[in-house]
Amino acid sequence: MWRIWALFFFFISLFFLIVLRLLYWQILVGEKLGREAAAQHFLTLNIPAVRGEIVASDGAPLAMNKPAYLVYASPREVTQKELFAQTVATKLGLERTALLEQLRLPDRVWVPLGHKVDTALTEELKQLNLPGLGFEKEPKRYYPESSMAAHLLGFVGSDQNGNDKGYFGLEGYYDRELRGKDGLIELEKDVRGAPILVGESKRIAPDDGRKLTLWLDRSIQKSVERRLQAGIEKYGAKEGAVVVMDPTTGGILAMAAYPGYEPEQYEKYDKVVYKNPLVGSSYEPGSTFKTLVMSAGLEEHAVTPTTTMDESGPVQVSDYSIRTWNNEYHGMITMTQVLERSSNVGMVFVQKKLGKDKLLQYIHDFGFGRPSGVDLEDESIPTMRASDQWRDIDLATASFGQGIAVTPLQMIRAVAALANDGWLMEPHVVKQVEDERGGVVVIKPKRIKRVVSAQTAKVITEMMIAAVDHGEAQWAKPKGYRIAGKTGTAQIPVAGHYDDKKTIASFVGFAPADNPKFVMLTILREPTSSPWGSETAAPLFFTIARDIFSYYGISPQ
Amino acid sequence: MIQRCGRIFLRCLPLMAIAIVLIELFVTNHMVHMGKAIQDIDRKMTMLRDENDLLSQNVASASSLAAIEVRAREAGFVPTTQYLTIGKETFTVALGHTQ
What value does the mean pLDDT take over residues A535-539? Predict the structure, then answer.
């Protein structure tokens, strides 16, 4: 009888064992096994989306993709590991012993040897016909114009998973649009790995990245970069930047900063140079800011171009004495002469006439203290102190552009409003976005606010023309052109005080003044040939302006 | 007559079924082999696409301003140092004056 029971329990145990095993296969590891089975039956291919191009306004590519390859080794297929390591290490510049060590690891099935290897070298490697050496397409970002507009474009690096990712500039800001979405193809395969046509298949088409067309003009950009480089050398400046904008649309026509870098070889440069100083760094605008405060005074009828003030000596504000830049005083002068002579004392007069609330309102209306909305990744917004924290001396110094921090882009945008009948525009780098199916989204110029009336804009334009024609920079101005502009020389704050010897020289202006085609800001940091904007940044401005006049075919009036 | 036709049809039915199965087998077998041909076509397409990308890259490089500048210098062109603009008032002959 016990034999029957033993047999019974034996079968019961066997039954439970089978149930447990099925539970393990179907429930616990069912999903994993399902995936493995599918991998055996199905051929799954990732169809990478092609990163979108960035083209200049004339359609010439500024950023595109070039064929490149991921080179890898499959150690199990490598027959002669020593020879393999020796040959491949020499070609790809790898450490031979380290590579050999990796190939000999028992559990390694795949060893990446080189990312984004160019086609010429890949062809050389393919010719070797080494067993176990594999290649996978891995397009590389290519910038045909080399370092041109590097700060504007940004670059493509890798994220933590090794996938392409845009950083800085347009590559960073529009990364999602440029990257697109990878597709997938899944086919049933035969024993040799070839797809079976009658089998199951699934295809998800890739959504290629979008193409960005910029406002940027290659010719102007080239001229700006060449002139900036020469200007930096000529005036012995530490750094420099130039931005050119179309005042009626807010489109950025050129944007250059020195020192620059090559986006394709970004890793060879110091990380400090990646940031675009024109949108990401702040500076004190100095006398260029006077044009804005004066326009506010005109708009509020606090002053007119012929209003006179007594510039007989320094003006006292609280415990501070405010002097003119050269400590020279001219007695009774008009507001036009205040701008021509860049009188700090005169600007304190305007500020007092305008009053605190109006001055702060106009500073805000001209777009300071808030984002400009530019489509670049690295924009910074220098904070403005709260209105109750402005002391009399702060208001006085702000009237001539000291003690207030702005970005160069904020500054040019504000002056562009004066060139655009008083309309403040949203600055834009991208003109249109195009998808792979040809769908085009045009980014229309966006008006933010009318800061001053068209009449005030005309009056301040005439005053700025006079500032150019009769100011300190008149010697450098191209003859016969009506150019509205203003020089600026701001001292650099260092550890709570201003450094006497270090300045930021700048010039902002637009031309032709009666029908502005461009507004431009030139900045030179710590020029050594002369600290003054009129002797450094202004000649640089006029040199570039000459090139633009010639390019646009604008003749003297 | 109808009954006779029906009988013939019924007799042919197994033959027809066998023929359909054979055709199905032949077509399926043929299509399975076509996979390799498709793979070859796909490979060629990839190769042509790569070649196209490479050509686009070469065109972009050759038409870059830096390359054009180098070629212009080689051809003897020099950068402009001075601009001369001729305005209406500087014309040496009168314009629009008919006598």
Answer: 95
Report pLDDT for B98: 46
CB contact under 8 A, A148 and B36: no
Extended beta strands in A229-335, E state: 239-245, 252-258, 308-311, 315-317, 320-322, 331-334
Give the closest residue to A52 by CA, choosing from A217, A211, A242. A211
- Tell me the chain B residues in contact with residue A65 when contact means C-beta distances shorter than 8 Å: 53
Residue of A nearest to B61 (CA): A144
State the nearest Cα–Cα gap between A198 and chain B, in angstroms.
7
**Quick one: which of A170, A178, A167 has its CA closest to A152?**
A170
Inter-chain CB proximity B60 and A144 less than 8 Å: yes
What is the largest distance, in Å, between two alpha-carbon atoms of chain B? 113
Nearest to A447 by CA among A467, A427, A464, A465: A427
What contacts A369, CB < 8 A, 6 or more positions away? Answer: A363, A381, A382, A383, A384
Nearest CA in chain A to B80: A547
Q: Give whole-number Cα distances, A100 to A73, A97, A315, in Å.
A: 11, 5, 78
At A271-283, the pLDDT tens digits run: 999 999 999 999 9
- Nearest-CB residue to A556 (from B39, B60, B87): B87
| Cross-chain residue pair A148–B80, CB shorter than 8 Å | no
Tell me what ipTM this predicted complex has. Answer: 0.72
Report pLDDT for B88. Answer: 58
Percent with pLDDT over 70 in chain B: 84
Q: Is A62 on the interface with B (CB under 8 A)?
A: no
B31–chain A nearest CA distance, Å: 6
- Cβ burial of A321 (10 Å; 0-12, 13-18, 19+) is exposed
pLDDT tens-digit map of A361-418: 999 999 999 999 999 988 999 988 898 999 999 999 999 999 999 999 999 999 999 9
CB-based contact A60 B64, cutoff 8 Å? yes
Alpha carbon of B72 to those of A230, A483, B66, B76: distances in Å? 20, 32, 10, 6
List CB contacts (< 8 A) between A222 and chain B: 65
Mean of pLDDT values over A533-555: 93
B28 interaction partners in chain A (CB closer than 8 Å): 198
pLDDT tens per residue across span A116-164: 898 889 999 999 888 889 888 888 999 999 999 999 999 999 888 888 8
With beta carbons under 8 A apart, name residues in chain B contacting A219: 65
Q: How far is CA A174 from CA A102, A200, A265, A530, in A?
A: 38, 37, 20, 40
